[in-house]
Amino acid sequence: MCDSCAPSTEMISAEEAEEFGGLSRRTLFAGLGLGLAIPAIGLVAGAPTASAASLMDGRWANPALGHFPQGGHFGASRPGGPHAGQDVTNSTGTGVYAAANGTVIRRAWGGGLPGRSGNGLVISHGHDQYTYYGHLNAYHVPLNAEVKSGQRIADMGATGNVTGPHLHFEVHSGGLGRITDPVAFMAKRGVDLGGGWPRIDPGSAGATVVVLQHLMRKHGHDLAVDGKYSSAAVAEVKRFQSAKGLEADGQVGPATWPKLVHTLRQGSKGDHVKGLQAALNKRSAGLAVDGDFGPTTTKAVRSYQSANRLVVDGEAGPITWRALLG
Which intervals hold domain M23ase beta-sheet core (predicted)? Predict the structure, then answer.
């Protein structure tokens, strides 16, 4: 799918070399030409150390829905070196979303990174963490924009040297240029890259926790909606899991979410609708969280379904919920 997403030996400026973790040109070029020299370009298997609470914190989101094409995985052999990211394939125009809060620091051909092609964005998330989104069909945010996790930032496309439409997604952890396996990196943060229910652990915080709290309230658990997965909230989730015959471990993942969500349609009212509206807002819907599934919420559901190549019926069933929460 992605024929130009391996690092190359093209010349870069001194400013760019500095951005690539302060590596000298000699050191950088030593690793860019051959897959045998992976460590020299910072192509690493893991990410810098972080606390368990900061990893599974509910603040990260799936950048795009789709499937993994053959040969599009991180580290796959390419003529210019190992593949630097993970490809996610879907139709041109499929929504592309910010993986976490941050600032758009590059919006240019190849994201201004050597060896990449097509329209690209680079987002800085702070703490020396960056994500790159390549082969975009259209941009939805300007350079220097502040973006939120799950905000739509672009459309999937086939610009640059590719064989079909897809998102080329990279994670740079420990500095721009220190490339890590995006599938493993996102999994540690509760995100199943490409699609799947998220995972929320005790101590988490963020927009996905807000959705969880609304849904738990619908099931009769009197939780504050503050976006913090506190010990009190964990205890209530364990009660819920036990009542549903699930392992009462307090982790909200693929086994628990399907028991929490409801199939909703226009006319539905209640805390479960508030949860849906909060989930849609994570994906740039801008809804009032009022618990009323009216025409505006229906339009937002249909818009999200269309942008992500789901059945456009305006009904929030398990497939739409899973896509929204991922």
Answer: 82-175
Single out the residue of 121, 128, 103, 125 nearest to residue 168, CA to CA. Answer: 121
Question: Where are the domains positioned within the chain?
Answer: 14-187, 207-325
**pLDDT of 272-318, one tens digit each?**
999 999 999 999 999 999 999 999 999 999 999 999 999 999 999 99
pTM of the model: 0.82
Contact 18, 100 (CB under 8 A): no
Q: What is the CATH number of domain 207-325?
A: 1.10.101.10
What tokens appear for 132 in the block? Answer: 């790159």
What whole-number distance in Å separates Cα of residue 212 and Cα of residue 215?
Answer: 5
- Is 240 in contact with 220 (CB distance < 8 Å)? no
| 169 CA to centre of own chain | 9
d(CA 279, CA 209): 10
Answer yes or no: are the C-beta atoms of 283 and 150 closer than 8 Å.
yes
What CATH class does 14-187 carry? mainly beta
